[in-house]
Specification:
single chain; mainly alpha
C-alpha cells in the first residue's frame, strides 16, 4: 500500500454507500477486533493495483479496512511517528485530554 492512503478523506468526501455508513466512522475499538484475513489481503491487492480505490464502492467491514491499515503501518521500514518524537506526542496528547483544554 502507498503511504498516501487518503482513506479518511476518501470516506469523508465519498457519497454515502447504500444503507449509509452504518456507524463505521464512529466505531470504537476498530483495531482491537481483527478483520477477515482474506478480505484484508484482497483489499491490499486491490489497493496495490489502484491507489485511487474508492472504499465507498466496496463492501469491506470497518475492521477489515482498519486491519489492512494496521498491517500496512507495521510493515513500514520506519515508524510512522519517529522514535525521537514519540514521547512529545504522548505528552501533547495528555495535555489535550486535560479537562478544559480539549476532549475529555
Amino acid at each position: 500500500m502507498s503511504a498516501q492512503l487518503g482513506i479518511h478523506s476518501k470516506l469523508n468526501s465519498a457519497p454515502r454507500p447504500k444503507g449509509g455508513w452504518g456507524g463505521r466512522l464512529s466505531t470504537e475499538g476498530i483495531y482491537r477486533v481483527s478483520g477477515n484475513k482474506s478480505e484484508m489481503e484482497s483489499l491490499q491487492r486491490q489497493f496495490d493495483q489502484d491507489h485511487n480505490l474508492d472504499l465507498a464502492e466496496k463492501d469491506f467491514t470497518v475492521n477489515t479496512v482498519a486491519g489492512a491499515m494496521k498491517s500496512f503501518f507495521s510493515e513500514l521500514p520506519d515508524p510512522l511517528v519517529p522514535y525521537n518524537m514519540q514521547i512529545d506526542l504522548v505528552e501533547a496528547h495528555s495535555e489535550y485530554r486535560r479537562p478544559g483544554l480539549g476532549h475529555t
